[in-house]
User: What shape does this take?
Amino acid sequence: MKKKYHVYGIGAALVDTEIEVTDNDLQQLSVDKGLMTLVDEERQSELVEQLSDHLTACRRASGGSAANTIIAVSCFGGKTFYSCKVADDDNGRFYLDDLGNAGVDYHTDGELPSGITGKCLVLITPDAERSMNTYLGISETLSETELNHDAIAQSEYLYLEGYLVTSETGRAAAIRAREIAEQQGVKTALSLSDPGMVAFFKGGLQDMIGEQVDLLFCNSDEALGWTETDILDTAAERLQAIAKTFVITLGAKGALVYDGNALIPIPPYPVTAVDSNGAGDMFAGAFLYAITQGHSHEVAGHLASMASASVVSQYGPRLDHQQYPHLLNLLDNGHVGAAAESG
Assistant: This one.
């Protein structure tokens, strides 16, 4: 039976602000480079104030890791649903409108709760690395209440962001969503999200994963950290214990895809990187779109590699609207992973 949605996602709802900084700025501000750090609103406001002369024009957009992925699936043409929690404030109302404009369905009971919608300060250094300082706001109380059981059951994949592990109610919601998906025969996918999540919340992530997810996304640092090795091949072998299939992104070196039978190297698409924010999210979105359209894991890897390369070559976690059909045109005309499709 054909499902209503290709992917159902659950994660934090964050409104992003990007600021260009130097490595020296990060040191002076005591910001951990390349990681996501949870901060309170006072600390976030302090950082914005100290960097006020660095502010660059940045279009406001709904963000958060899983949201970026779900929006990517939708912009490629997939049918999506997203569960999150926003407050009854300007950012919250904007966030839901932006999801809707991106073609994403979302769960709401109508009246939004009082509070502050989550915000993420993204600091971009000249090497294109992103360092995130996140004030979760009301997203910290995301819970099972925000789940839509019918929408999960009507989806091909459930997608969970690893960042949910930092919230007790968010982690419980992720676990419950996975249980519903497993009961309904819906495939499960999870992103480890950040090396810090692996280092400090591995037990909670294991609870979210359960016995085994159908698809795992991680970068090389997360893969090596999870499997407690410094050898990538060993990490890939050990990840098979928690995931039926998986992707290890390797930055400028491409990616490694395991399709359940074999490890497949995915070559990089060379670009001049300016902003790595959202690269992994875009990779997951393009990959999920491709496999839910019937493409192989290898072809999905090629499309995802191209899409993430496009994202890092510009500022912000999304592509321009015309870039999605351009990538799909390459896919449809056999220019993406042609050898894999014929094989």
